[in-house]
Amino acid sequence: MTGSIRLPKMAELVALELRRRIVRGELAEGDALPAEPELMAEFSVSRPTLREAFRVLESEQLISIRRGARGGARVHVPDGSVVARYAGLILEHRSATLQDVYAARTVIEAPCAGLLAGRRTTEDLDRLRAALAEAEALIGDPSAFIRAHLRFHALVVELSGNQTLVVLNGMVRDIIDRANWSHVDLDAGTEENVQANLSGLRAHVRLVELVAAGDREGAVRVWRTHLEKAHEYLLGTKPMATVLDLLR
């Protein structure tokens, strides 16, 4: 049994080539694409076909179109926030619980702590210690502290060196951040909140010590325990709350 093979439209081929140039770094953030007549000549296409290709790239947020005399198509390098937003929509549609999201966070972040301990550099340790000092200085300000706290978590994943895990982390990070902020709004300054922040800070301190020592297993163990305790605190009495509940 044979089926027909759909050939790509010319606009899709133009979009594919321009996308490749952006991904390969031949076109940088903020660069202007060549003028329409130049691109039409290069690809031997009509203006409507070129503009259809632009619409494809614009929908992927790889370019933006500016109108007017100084207008044209401007390049945007791939951004994980696009994936994160779409992932959030899928999780909402599937009625994923926050418990699901937190479990995924542990699966992603805990191994990153081990990877970091195994590959840490002097620069990595300097960045971790600077982030730690920032959080310590803000412990009395719940809102500022949670921002520093979340930056530290993102830094652990970033410094793991695994770009796939960085992207996967970005897909759930927005939801995690929202959950943290909803908790800050509810109980900032309460004794429970103060103790939770101090406990989290101690875990961060311990992680930096283990990373500096190159203790991969210890780093994974401490970070997993920290995440599980944080999730228990953040979920509270609503373990089955959904992502959609959070965004309402």
Q: Quick check: average pLDDT? A: 89
Order of strands, main sheet, comes to 1-2
Number of distinct beta strands: 2
Work out the count of structural domains: 2
Say which CATH homologous superfamily of the largest domain is assigned.
Answer: GntR ligand-binding domain-like
What sequence of helices (H) and strands (E) makes up the elements? HHHEEHHHHHHHH
- Helix-strand makeup class: mainly alpha
Known CATH architecture of the largest domain: Up-down Bundle
What Rg, in angstroms, do the CA atoms define? 23 Å
Helix content: over 70%
Strand percent estimate: under 5%
Quick recap of the structure?
The protein is mainly alpha-helical. Helices cover 71% and strands 3% of the residues.
Keywords:
single chain; mainly alpha; Arc Repressor Mutant, subunit A; Four Helix Bundle (Hemerythrin (Met), subunit A); 2 domains; two-stranded antiparallel sheet; 3% strand
Structure description:
This protein has a two-stranded antiparallel sheet with strand order 1-2. The protein has 2 domains: 10-75, Arc Repressor Mutant, subunit A, CATH 1.10.10.10; 81-247, Up-down Bundle (Four Helix Bundle (Hemerythrin (Met), subunit A)), CATH 1.20.120.530. The protein has helices spanning 10-23, 36-43, 47-59, 80-93, 98-119, 122-137, 142-158, 163-187, 191-213, 216-235, 243-247; strands at 63-66, 72-75. The chain has 11 helices and 2 strands; from the N terminus they run αααββαααααααα. By secondary structure, it is mainly alpha-helical.
